[in-house]
Structures are given as C-alpha cells and as structure tokens.
From TrEMBL:
It comes from the Bacteria. Gene3D superfamilies: 3.40.630.30. This is N-acetyltransferase. InterPro entries: Acyl_CoA_acyltransferase.
Length: 43
C-alpha cells in the first residue's frame, strides 16, 4: 500500500482520500464536467 503524504502550501492542505470521502466523491460522478477528466480506473 502506497501512502500519499499530505501536500501543504500557504493556501491549501491536500490530504489522501479516505473511506469517509467516498460519498462526496460519488456525488461528483453525476457531473460530466468532472467525470470526463477522471481516469477509466475507478476505485
């Protein structure tokens, strides 16, 4: 399992996805403007 380190900038904190993020991510799948940029390999 590869652990992605957090990315910190002065204006942003980007954390690895977690199971709790799944509902929010799945809600984006209804928007073609988002989905068309995703890879074809979905977790």
């Amino acid at each position: 399992m590869v652990l992605t380190p957090p990315l910190h900038t002065p204006r942003m904190l980007l954390l690895p996805l977690q199971l709790e993020d799944a509902p929010a991510m799945q809600s984006l799948f209804n928007h073609w403007e988002v989905v068309r940029y995703l890879t074809h390999h979905m977790p």
